[in-house]
Give the backbone structure.
Amino acid sequence: MLNRKVTYRLYPNVEQEARLQETLGLHQRLYNTALEERIRAYQETGKGLSFADQCKVLTQWRKAVPALAGLNAQSEQVTLKRLHLAFQHFFRRVKNDETPGFPRFKNIHRYPGWGYKTHGDGWKLHPSQGASPGQPGAHGKIYLQGIGLVPMRGKPRTAGDPVTCEILHKAGKWYASVTLEMETVQRERGTEMAAFDWGLTDFLTIATPQGVETVANPRHLRNQLTELKHLGQEVARKIRMAQKLSGKQKGFPVSGNLRRAIQHLSRLHAKIARQRKDFMHQTSAWLVKRFGALATEALDVKNMIHKGGAHKKGLNREIHAAAPAAFLKMTRTKAEEAGSWYEEAPTREIKPTQRCHGCWKLPNVKKTLSDRIHRCDCGACCGRDENAAKVLLRWLEAELTGREPSEMRSGGSFAAMKHETHTIAG
């Protein structure tokens, strides 16, 4: 069975909005109280509390606090589970000599939401009567315990059985992220072959046996930088004024004017994030729909932005804004759903930005990042990204030779894919 998520936008009325806010506040306080109990128990006994221990304590809290008793018990366990996972990740980082990052107390404005474990226990989907066949989860309403039936919009690409649900609060809007369980995921796949190089000047440079194409970089963040700077300065100015009037650096009263300015800024950030995600989903779906065999290079984004200092700040921002790791993950997932070839070339072995696509030789003098034109002694001359895409295409052609269609490499590991042989246009 496969799991896929679908996100619905919720449209609560005034009364439901108040109940949602109250429920969010209760889960936030439950999380903080459970964290406080873990810290206190360790300071007193030298031993921490486990998830099972806190679930037992939760039963006592529900008897003593009527507000907690009104919430769904399984959703409260999900909140405790999140805290447990935060500590598990903390211990893992300590063990691996990484920056530990001890679990922090959550502010209500930074608490994302809460979850439910089982469909029908505290929540249930009620699709609209006019939902099309094969899309039982299209639009309609969602029932939430203590809140009622909340109208929603959205539909899954592939129908499935609802399993779990998360209620999210982002930039003043409410969402329901539902996990669906399904037997198979049907996605159309292409018959052509291509390799692409990710970049910033052009988002993708695609090399095919017929030629080279490019996909423009939409630069959603850069287009809004002026407005983001203006809104950020306005929020900072109002925060300084509130601190000055109250005489407090922390815990100062937040006026309605300041709250609206913060909400305006967060909504613009959320809009940019939605635009970026939508573009990457559409582009990755287009690639898989058109090409039956795809290749690119494995990217280490962390190392790409690790060094450089202040003078590289703008470049690092553009790399983050383009989200290459998320895009490659989307493309890999969609290729697996369609049963297509997807290959990530080992960058340190192939060196596609350095190697010549014509003679397959490395240059005597290593090209720097500012060298945007590839020139080789063999006579090959083209753009740097175009050369990298052609190198990857040549590598893919060699990889496909003598391989079985049931073998597909994603990020260096092989996974068995059960599908029939399909024609790849050469």
